[in-house]
Design a protein that fits this description.
With about 90 residues, the chain is mainly alpha-helical. It is built from three helices and no strands. It is flat.
């Protein structure tokens, strides 16, 4: 219903990929633009620093969690690679 494109390695011509990405960005921007009236949202948020502080705190917490998740994923991936023999590791004595 929404449409899409299929990218098959070795068969798909990537010459129009930039235009495709632009259309995806345009569709996303259009969807977000319809999410609310800017003046109404500004009035709801107010003029003090509380929302700014809350958004900054959330962004920092989200970034910290992302770093922890990546470290855990990397650790698991390295352990799996070592277990399968794709990555040689020194053994502890």
């Amino acid at each position: 219903m929404k449409g899409g494109a299929e990218f098959v390695p070795g068969k798909t011509k990537m010459s129009n990929f930039i235009e495709y990405c632009g259309l995806c960005g345009w569709a996303l921007a259009l969807a977000h633009a319809k999410s609310g009236d800017a003046a109404m949202l500004a009035g709801y948020c107010g003029n003090d620093e509380a929302l700014d502080a809350a958004m900054a705190a959330f962004a920092h917490a989200y970034a910290d969690q992302t770093e922890r998740d990546h470290a855990a994923m990397a650790q698991a991936a390295m352990a799996q690679a070592a277990k399968s023999g794709r990555l040689s590791v020194a053994r502890k004595f």
